[in-house]
């Protein structure tokens, strides 16, 4: 077996299962899960209709490069959304959702034989983080290094924690904007800093932007391609952006997204994917064209999330340290010190046992780095269910904290 597999850590939801294995949730209350970030809003009818009408396309093998009509639809969406012009033949590549591509990209760009005398290749990511980043680093033969989130800056990653010696060994930087779990969006000045570091040390930047269409203010979140264009980097050198329809269009089971950016990186990535056998289902491609070409269902989806966050955030803010994120569908809340001693794991157990609400301990989404685990003492709540269900869950959390404090 590949010995690098031994470096992989259990996924957060496996750790959660073990944490609560002896818990019997309160049977008097219906279960409500805020633990998994799986969209629950209905999938758009136009996408389902196109998918059903495209089943005859299953008779043909799909090309790794994807259908030209899909690449064009993705490029057109980027133009409408970010004002960025892409060559759909060279700068866009359909993928089976951003998760698959985030992992595979590291296998494409990392050279594990480089810098061995200085400790080997490094992959930098924010902390807390999407665990695929860490697994991709390990299985590419690199070492993951983490930049902790900074609560003073709405939980944006503190890239200044990475020293120059580490940046000099870095071959890939994962950025998540809007972030998971705290929803922070990188501003233009921060992109300028990261691009300068990439120019100095030659690493690729992979910008994970799967939450970009769920936001709560009038101005849409800045994307990496848009930032590059505004900074005069129209060749998008060493920059790739990954996004998907999962959150935007409520179709996580469709497994459809795309990667865009540096044509040279995408050429190598397409070669890897050709051997990896990861071409997108042709019916899925045609349904994806319909989804990327339609914005009405996205506006409706965003309005539903805004309603939930408008109702839930003030309720929870009365008893917890929690704030509206820049974007995304998570709330990142601190457990009060006078409840379970501020422990995210103990509060998770208490909440499930007494109020039948499932959340995810924040410490499971992070690693100890620079002397701390930046997720410790926090919980992640995914507001993916309906408005009424999320509001009911919030009230139960308020009741749980209030009751515990009164003892």
Please provide a written account of the structure.
Helices cover 40% and strands 14% of the residues. It has 407 residues and is of the alpha/beta class. The protein has an eight-stranded mixed β-sheet with strand order 2-9-8-7-6-3-4-5, with helices on both faces. Helix 3 (68-82) packs parallel to helix 11 and helix 12 (296-317) packs parallel to helix 14 (387-405). Keywords: Aminotransferase, Transferase. This is Succinyldiaminopimelate aminotransferase.
Q: Which stretches are low in confidence, meaning pLDDT under 50 for 5 or more residues running?
A: none
- Give me the Rg, rounded: 21 Å
Amount of beta strand: 5-15%
Question: What is the CATH first-level class name of the largest domain?
Answer: Alpha Beta
Distance between the termini: 53 Å
Which CATH architecture of the largest domain?
A: 3-Layer(aba) Sandwich
H/E element string? HEHHEHEHEEHEHEHEHEHHHEHEEEH
| Name given to the CATH homologous superfamily of the largest domain | Type I PLP-dependent aspartate aminotransferase-like (Major domain)
Write down the CATH topology of the largest domain.
Answer: Aspartate Aminotransferase, domain 2
Strand order across the biggest sheet? 2-9-8-7-6-3-4-5
Shape: globular
Structural class: alpha/beta
* Number of helices in the DSSP assignment: 14
Number of folding domains?
2
On the 0 to 100 scale, the average pLDDT is 96
Question: What is the percent of helical residues?
Answer: 40-55%
Largest beta-sheet details: 8 strands, mixed
Task: Give the strand tally.
Answer: 13
Domain Aminotransferase class I/classII large: 32-396
GO molecular function: pyridoxal phosphate binding; succinyldiaminopimelate transaminase activity
InterPro entries: Aminotransferase_I/II_large, DapC_beta/gammaproteobac, LL-DAP_aminotransferase, PyrdxlP-dep_Trfase, PyrdxlP-dep_Trfase_major, PyrdxlP-dep_Trfase_small
Keywords: Aminotransferase, Transferase
